[in-house]
């Protein structure tokens, strides 16, 4: 089973709809991240969380909100989707331990299309 | 603000060739640099991580170098294979207190033809 899973994998929705993307991990990591990727651009950080009570905005948080329901779950919401939020969304996790590797582990991505 | 640029955007080579992918960054005060591989329908997989104090890292046919003072990194792939076809992304971590926030380049889409 994959260590980092994302649901749904694909979603088509209409402008103005509320959408939630979910991420779950079995790696036991405390740090979780949400990124978006647009064609021709690198990944950009939306939100990140160091633990259940510590949530931080990334470089492009406007129009998004997040919820860390448990250490293993981190959800991204679009309260009122707009077409320019059409993108590929990735969740990632990382151990916060000093002795842990600095590598982030990524989920398979959610392709979101807003019409 | 840190900016990361990758050249070329796309590369097509015949099987067996050695190749180099380039990554440049504007702020040399980095904590580390990573190279990732992205396959369609799958997430990113970390290939190599170079700490700011290191000059290079090797894994199998892959070798990544880092010249922090000039703001450059290269990923060298030896004896390329069709299975190497993917998008390669480099990412820099700005500092030890950055919360592991990464700044990514746009990626190089590599095609290795049989």
Number of E strands of chain B: 11
Rg of chain B, rounded, reads 14 Å
The string of secondary-structure elements of chain A, in order, is: EEEEEEEEEEE
Total of DSSP H or I helical runs spanning 4+ residues of chain B: 0
The secondary-structure class of chain B comes to mainly beta
Could you tell me how far the N terminus lies from the C terminus of chain B, measured between alpha carbons in angstroms? 41 Å
Average pLDDT reading of chain A:
92
Classify the secondary structure makeup of chain A into a structural class: mainly beta
Low-confidence stretches of chain A: none
Order of helices and strands of chain B: EEEEEEEEEEE
Describe this structure in words.
The complex is a heterodimer of chains A (115) and B (114). Chain A has 115 residues and is mainly β. Chain A has no helices and eleven strands. In chain A, strands 2, 4, 5, 6, 9, 10 and 11 form a seven-stranded mixed beta sheet that branches. In chain A, strands 1-3-8-7 form a four-stranded antiparallel beta sheet, with no helix packed on it. In chain A, strand 4 (31-37) and strand 5 (43-51) form a beta hairpin. The termini of chain A are far apart. With 114 residues, chain B is an all-beta fold. In chain B, 0% of the residues lie in helices and 55% in strands. Chain A binds chain B through residues 4, 31, 33, 40-45, 48, 50, 56, 58, 90, 92, 94, 101-109, and chain B through 4, 9, 32, 34, 41-46, 49, 89, 91, 93, 99-107.
């Amino acid at each position: 089973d994959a260590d980092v899973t994302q649901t749904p994998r694909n979603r088509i929705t209409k402008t103005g709809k509320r959408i939630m993307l979910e991420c779950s991990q079995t790696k036991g990591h405390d740090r979780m991240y949400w990124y978006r990727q647009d064609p021709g651009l690198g990944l950009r950080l939306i939100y990140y969380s160091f633990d259940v009570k510590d949530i931080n905005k990334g470089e492009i948080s406007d129009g998004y909100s997040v919820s860390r329901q448990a250490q293993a779950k981190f959800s991204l919401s679009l309260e009122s989707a707009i077409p320019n939020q059409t993108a590929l969304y990735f969740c990632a996790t990382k151990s916060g331990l000093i002795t842990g590797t600095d590598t982030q582990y990524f989920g398979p991505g959610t392709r979101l299309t807003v019409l | 603000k840190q900016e990361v640029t990758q050249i070329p955007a796309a590369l097509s080579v015949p099987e067996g060739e050695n190749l180099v992918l380039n990554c440049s960054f504007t702020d040399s005060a980095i904590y580390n640099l990573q190279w990732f591989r992205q396959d369609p329908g799958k997430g990113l997989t970390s290939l190599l991580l170079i700490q700011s104090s290191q000059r290079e890292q090797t894994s199998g046919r892959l070798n990544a170098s880092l010249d922090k003072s000039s703001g450059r990194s290269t990923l060298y792939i030896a004896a390329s294979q069709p299975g190497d076809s993917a998008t390669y992304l480099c990412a820099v971590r700005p500092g030890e207190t950055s919360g592991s926030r990464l700044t990514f380049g746009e990626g190089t889409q590599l095609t290795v033809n049989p």
